[in-house]
Design brief:
alpha/beta; 18 strands; Rossmann fold; 2 domains; binds nicotinamide-8-iodo-adenine-dinucleotide; Quinone Oxidoreductase, Chain A, domain 1; 6-stranded parallel beta sheet; about 350 residues; binds zinc ion
């Protein structure tokens, strides 16, 4: 039976701290519109994007007051009446990603760029997300979770995993190529290290601190650079790549400093994948060398339903493994503090079952 009230973490106003309420109403089956489903969450990852949404430090603002969160895994407990052709049913275990829904009928959706649909519903940003025991999502966009794949392991694949998997897919690299990963010790970055190794790339991991160094090297990074200790990041990368530079950089650092020098350390024909989302910064790239070296600069924004399925399938088969610590919803404010200070290696996943 579905309770009438639940525990949920709410952002009451922009920049204010999270309020955990224990009497937040749960939608009933009758409240659900066609196409909507109610998911009883097992757990949810915490992404740095949730912190941007709460702080309001992006040019796009979240629909506050709001429940954040977009890396949820749980069971479908209800589906709206008159839902046509649902690909999922009550009892299915599914993931909720950032892109909660899209129209599937515009030019962007038809081209497979569902994430840039003008009618996109974004979990934890313009619709309530997964920092709650129950979340409303959308049958067409939830991601089925394969049997035997642990929910806690699966959660962060729904945003961090999908995002870096797609960025790698479009990075114009081939097996054996060098990829630089600024932000490698964070939530997105530590999964990027693993997906990159999975597709046969050589990895230069950049981040800071002993713990993130250990994690990156354990996950298979070939080279480690501490951005706070290195005297010359371009020289370090050149030294690691026979003086030729890297084929691609996938920047998942949450600050603009992670983007600096990428044009310099990429070899001719190289590709810069912009993923990390500092709100105000601009990309400072030499026009001359971007042209002279035939550099591609591409923005990469989460992924579509197919990217989600592929990223989840690789993780379900053990190809990548999220490194996480399990916490409770009540710890969310502390987790945000850790993300601000950069003290979290890998991910934090919140247990919603206890
Ligand atoms: O679709 C997208 N493009 C997408 C999807 C999901 C998240 C983008 N994001 C964005 C988030 O909004 C955030 O801005 O990617 C960024 C990273 O998210 P995250 O991985 O969840 O954040 P994190 O766990 O805090 O990791 C960031 C890492 O960057 C390092 C930090 O030490 C941390 O480990 N870092 C920083 I800050 N500056 C760096 C630098 N100059 C750096 N690493 C290397 N060089
Ligand atoms: Zn995210």
């Amino acid at each position: 039976t579905i309770p009438q009230v639940q525990t949920a973490a709410i952002i009451p106003e922009k920049g204010s701290s999270i309020v955990v309420k224990h009497d937040h109403p749960v939608k009933t089956q009758a409240d659900l519109a066609p196409g909507e489903c109610l998911v009883k969450l097992h757990c949810t990852g915490v992404c740095h994007t949730d912190l941007h949404a709460a702080l309001g430090d992006w040019p796009l603002k979240a629909n506050i007051p709001l429940i954040g969160g977009h890396e949820g895994v749980g069971d479908i407990v209800a589906i709206g009446s008159h839902t046509p052709n649902s690909p999922v049913k009550v009892g299915d275990r599914v993931g909720i990603k950032w892109l909660a829904d899209s129209c599937l009928d515009c030019e962007q959706c038809r081209k497979g760029r569902e994430q840039t649909c003008a009618h996109a519903k974004l979990s934890g940003f313009n619709v309530d997300g997964t920092f709650a025991q129950y979340a409303v999502s959308y049958v067409r966009h939830v991601t089925p979770i394969p049997e035997g794949f642990d929910s806690n392991e699966a959660a962060s694949i729904l945003c961090a995993g999908v995002t870096v998997y797609r960025a790698l897919k479009y990075s114009q690299t081939n097996p054996g190529d060098w990829v630089v990963l600024p932000g490698a010790g964070g939530g997105l970055g530590h999964l990027a290290v693993q997906y990159a190794k999975y597709i046969g790339l050589r990895v230069i991991a950049i981040d800071t601190g002993e713990e993130k160094k250990k994690l990156c090297l354990k996950l298979g990074a070939d080279v480690w650079i501490d951005f706070k200790e290195s005297k010359d990041i371009v020289a370090d990368i050149n030294a690691a790549t026979d003086g030729l530079g890297a084929h691609s950089a996938i920047v998942t650092a949450a600050s603009s400093s992670g983007y600096q020098q990428a044009i310099e350390y990429l070899r001719p024909g190289g590709t810069l994948m912009a993923v990390g989302l500092p709100g105000e910064a601009t990309l400072n790239a030499s026009i001359f060398f971007t042209v002279f070296k035939s550099i591609s600069i591409l923005g990469s924004y989460v992924g579509n339903r197919q990217d989600a399925k592929e990223a989840v399938d690789i993780a379900a088969r053990g190809g990548v493994k999220c490194h996480f610590i399990l916490k409770q919803l009540d710890d969310l404010a502390d987790v945000y503090e850790g993300l601000t200070k950069g003290t979290i290696s890998g991910r934090v996943v919140l247990d919603m079952r206890s």
